Amino acid sequence: MTLLDGKKTAAAIKEEIALSVTELKKSGKKTPHLAAVLVGTNGASMTYVGAKVKACDLVGFESTLIELPDTTSEAALLDVIENLNTDPSIDGFIVQLPLPKHIDEDKVLMAVHPDKDVDGFHPTNVGKMALELPTFLPATPYGILELLERYQVETSGKNVVVIGRSHIVGRPMSILLSQKRAAGNATVTLTHSRTKNLKEITLKADIVVAALGIAEFLTGDMVKEGVTIIDVGITRVEDASKKKGFRLAGDVHFESTSKKAAFITPVPGGVGPMTIAMLLKNTLLACDRNS
Ligand code: NAD
Q1: Calpha distance 84→35 (Å, rounded)
Q2: Residue 220 dihedral angles phi and psi, to the nearest 5°
Q3: 148-153 contacts, C-beta under 8 A, 24 or more apart
Q4: Is 288 a catalytic residue?
Q5: For residues 207 and 158, what is the distance between their CA atoms, to the nearest angstrom?
Q6: For 197-206, how does the pLDDT look when each residue is reduced to its tens digit (9 = 90+)?
Q7: How is residue 117 annotated by DSSP?
Q8: Among residues 46, 49, 48, 47, which one has the least CA distance to residue 36?
Q9: CA 39 and chain centroid, separation
Q10: What is the pLDDT of residues 134-182, one digit of tens each?
């Protein structure tokens, strides 16, 4: 069994990005600048945004964190987004999800200018992605493609089962893996909460991408020998033995599935770090397009 080490791979990608930033600075070009908007004090969101800002520092990007209170109105948030859209110093920005319930998430994501949408969530960019046109790929599926490619996991002609059809992970993942690309050309089955007999389907999979948000859902009896398993899930599970009172669990039961797997991602240290690395890669691309 080979561990698909997202932490190590993300570190290598960040080094590559840092080298590009050094080159940009040497030639007097603009330093990439990522902004992140965080509304409220959701613990997990604060951790994710903090990690993204830290990653910017590491590769030599400029970063701006805009923290807004839970009570921020939708109109006020849209104003902040408009300012970022028109600020020439900002190459790309993200609005950390989830947003408080009184704010319409779709409206907010639609307001981000597609050229600065480094999360790749705007309909224009989703459309381009589906049509195989150059664009910002959503960071989590992009990171998974990169991990599969760098570990030379064969995807061409393989049966891939994606569990979960969210707009940010499952659905784009299923589209990308079915396309003509390095980590692609797979025969993809997209499964979800209404799927019947899921185990029968996953047992036929050469590769399973689990992105449903239910801790340790995929167990050893649901996969075949030699399978590749990508665990996207991050769930906080109560654990009194931990200082913080919780541990992070993936959507995969690692102990039972890893006995059968040829390749598997750990949680933490798998898909999570890759997501951040690909966000940086998208920001570098945005800066390149701007200059
Ligand atoms: P979501 O809640 O938006 O979607 C979950 C999907 O799972 C839905 O499409 C639903 O139909 C499907 N589902 C639910 N129960 C199911 C079942 N019993 N069988 C089959 N399908 C089922 O989730 P999301 O935003 O895609 O996130 C999924 C998980 O990935 C979460 O744990 C989230 O925290 C994590 N995540 C991690 C990263 C990362 O960088 N590692 C990025 C995004 C999301």
Answers
A1: 8
A2: -55, -35
A3: 148/4, 148/183, 148/207, 148/228, 148/230, 149/182, 149/183, 150/9, 150/12, 151/2, 151/4, 151/9, 151/263, 153/4, 153/183, 153/207, 153/228, 153/263
A4: no
A5: 7
A6: 999 999 999 9
A7: B
A8: 49
A9: 19
A10: 999 999 999 999 999 999 999 999 999 999 999 999 999 999 999 999 9
pLDDT of residue 290: 80
Q: Considering 5, 91, 117, 119, which one is annotated as catalytic?
A: 119
For residue range 251-291, what is the model confidence (pLDDT) as tens digits?
999 999 999 999 999 999 999 999 999 999 999 999 999 87
**Amino acid found at 236:** R
Phi first, then psi: give them for residue 264, nearest 5 degrees.
Answer: -155, 145
User: What pLDDT, on the 0 to 100 scale, is given for residue 291?
Assistant: 77
User: Which residue segments constitute the domains of the chain, with CATH numbers given?
Assistant: 28-113 (3.40.50.10860), 139-272 (3.40.50.720)
pLDDT digits (tens, 9 = 90+) for 47-60: 999 999 999 999 99
Query: What is the per-residue pLDDT for 177?
Result: 98
Distance from C-alpha of 198 to C-alpha of 208, rounded to nearest angstrom: 12
Ligand 1 pocket, residues with Cβ under 6 angstroms: 140, 163-166, 168-170, 191-193, 195, 198, 211-214, 232-235, 271-272, 275
Nearest residue (CA) to ligand 1, atom 3: 166
Q: Order across the sheet with 62-68: list the strands.
A: 62-68, 33-39, 92-95
pTM score above 0.90:
yes
Query: Residues 5, 14, 96, 251: which is the catalytic one?
Result: 96
Q: Pick the closest to residue 25 from 60, 53, 51 (CA basis).
A: 60
Average pLDDT, the chain: 97
Band (pLDDT 50/70/90 cuts) for residue 130 is very high
- Cβ of 127: how many Cβ atoms within 10 Å? 12
Identify the three-state secondary structure at position 237. Answer: strand
